Amino acid sequence: MDRRWQVFPDVTSVQAVARERIAAAASEAILARGAFHLVLAGGSTPRGLYASLRDLETDWKAWHIYFGDERVLPADDPERNSRMAHEAWLDQVPIPREQIHPIATEQGLDSSVRAYQTVMSRVDYFDLVLLGLGEDGHTASLFPGQYWGEGDSAPDVLAVRDAPKPPPKRVSLSAHRLSRSRQVLFLVTGVGKRDAVSRWRREARIPALAIDPSSGVDVLLDAAASPDR
Ligand code: 6PG
């Protein structure tokens, strides 16, 4: 599987390149298929990127938004990945609300897994999946030592009950489902991620390694997160 590492001087340049990659993926998908299916990463890294998408010139009514994972918290909790994306971006652009698919974890862990499984049954290949990387090598809510849902028979949506990164209860797309995408783009910044990147580059069995789309993955790093620097 092809893994393409690109190192940039700082977070701003990582965000600028990621924005261009999203814009290009959107225009290609909309031209070719009339729709753009994008999976958002959670955590704090993507916030600046999401804010930079507000002024994108695009056909917003063709965009369909999904989440790679969500924390089991009330819908308006500041730690919800969906709340971050809405505040930074989604509330400022005219994507039809029925085309934004939050993982409704406020309904409880098991019922939100079942509900999102239904959402996933309606979309075949994603056009672009955005992912982050944790300091322990986790991605989405796939954590070391837990079940990542690899292989064709894996479910699309996983219930996570003891995540080491709070909160412990989460819903995550599986490694298999996250890999069913035309493109996968990791955004990794900050010196705290350097060790995880170094292990990943040595093919250590971290959850990020399990994301293996046929087209390979692109990893956008700032210098702080890159072991070469
Ligand atoms: C989450 C995220 C998680 C995140 C990484 C990196 O819900 O916590 O989905 O996978 O992407 O932990 O987080 P930061 O971007 O905050 O470093």
Verbal overview:
- The chain is 27% helix and 18% strand.
- With 229 residues, it is α/β, with parallel strands linked by helices.
- It has one domain (3-225): Rossmann fold (3-Layer(aba) Sandwich), CATH 3.40.50.
- A six-stranded parallel beta sheet has the order 1-9-8-5-2-3, with helices on one face. It has a three-stranded antiparallel beta sheet with strand order 4-7-6.
- Helix 2 links the parallel strand 2 (36-40) and strand 3 (63-67).
- Bound molecules: 6-phosphogluconic acid.
- Percentage of residues in DSSP E strands: 15-25%
Summarize the amount of helix as a percent range: 25-40%
CATH top level class name: Alpha Beta
Strand order of the largest sheet: 1-9-8-5-2-3
Largest sheet: 6 strands, parallel
- Label the structural class: alpha/beta
Question: What are the segments in which pLDDT stays under 50 over at least 5 consecutive residues?
Answer: none
Question: CATH fold name, please?
Answer: Rossmann fold
Rg measurement, Å: 16 Å
Order of helices and strands: EHEHEEHHEEEHEHE
The beta-strand count equals 9
